[in-house]
Amino acid sequence: xxxxxxxxxxxxxxxxxxxxxxxxxxxxxxxxxxxxxxxxxxxxxxxxxxxxxxxxxxxxxxxxxxxxxxxxxxxxxxxxxxxxxxxxxxxxxxxxxxxxxxxxxxxxxxxxxxxxxxxxxxxxxxxxxxxxxxxxxxxxxxxxxxxxxxxxxxxxxxxxxxxxxxxxxxxxxxxxxxxxxxxxxxxxxxxxxxxxxxxxxxxxxxxxxxxxxxxxxxxxxxxxxxxxxxxxxxxxxxxxxxxxxxxxxxxxxxxxxxxxxxxxxxxxxxxxxxxxxxxxxxxxxxxxxxxxxxxxxxxxxxxxxxxxxxxxxxxxxxxxxxxxxxxxxxxxxxxxxxxxxxxxxxxxxxxxxxxxxxxxxxxxxxxxxxxxxxxxxxxxxxxxxxxxxxxxxxxxxxxxxxxxxxxxxxxxxxxxxxxxxxxxxxxxxxxxxxxxxxxxxxxxxxxxxxxxxxxxxxxxx
Length: 461
Hints:
- By secondary structure, the chain is mainly α.
- 80% of the residues lie in helices and 0% in strands.
- The protein contains 24 helices and no strands.
- Helix 3 (40-57) packs antiparallel against helix 4 (60-76).
């Protein structure tokens, strides 16, 4: 094929390039190269098409093909400036900084006064510094500025995975695992052999409580790069957490609650930035504390769980029980009301709420059993006997030493009379045991009497 034919093929390639048909342009440029393999311009034309494909699709292989064509063009013509410029761009886009610097040095040696190459050198140095800045910010836990830095780098480097993965790590640090999952998937779709992407995605899956998939991704990362230390540590951490959780649950099953607590604590401490894990372990440990009657710690753990996820009813229910253990009935009712707002159809919550409300009403009235110093299972005979004994003890005539003492005795004496009246009447006692106070009992009985009079005697003889 003649040089004229090669030139014609090149012109056809240029037409396709201008129309945005880069693959078709590459086909024509490739035929031109076959016809005239010693023409640097043809390699340069094809490199431009590969560069455009890389920039529009973020495909690393397109940038690699561009760099290869640039090297071929430069080998033919060491003063082919566009070969240096495009080659450096393509290498930067795939993170090959050392190769880009080497190519720039070669280009500036051949063309020392070229402004475009000087600009590429400055841009390369800026990108390197930005990457170092982003890495340093990640190491210091300054995730928001790190995210911004890597986003800027991505805008300047296109397909290079490093800035996208830097953003993913920053998003993980900010507690935004779903965004990290999206970013890492983009990298894996572009390059299925990127071990770092599988590692970071594994970490993100773990943060979304998808532990099985997390382990699979970490294992894939280690298959691709067995020496990836961060991934090794992540896999070991997950396995250790699983062992701690299993040991804690086994201890609970054996009712060895004191042994369970440090197991759940160890799981939490192994990955303190994993909000889902910490919340789940706080619930488990809170339940263990509850069974130990350590109500304060149970409340603290449930509060932690609620702060991390206020849509889960479990910590509200456990905290309510702990509040009742501390005689904090208003707090207990409030917890169950919040749980009911989350799951209004749950019969367990409904039943617990009713019982907590009964206990709250009980806590606000006089405890007649305590007043007479009898148990709630006391018989009518026991109650009458206790009343007589306590009435003698608290009769106002025996407490004349001061007006204050007399007033106190009179109050207690009256309350004991109420206690004896209510607790020796089966109907009144049943209402009292359900949480009703003296006034409520009287109102209920009056209402029942009125209904009986209205409906019971209308047709008498």
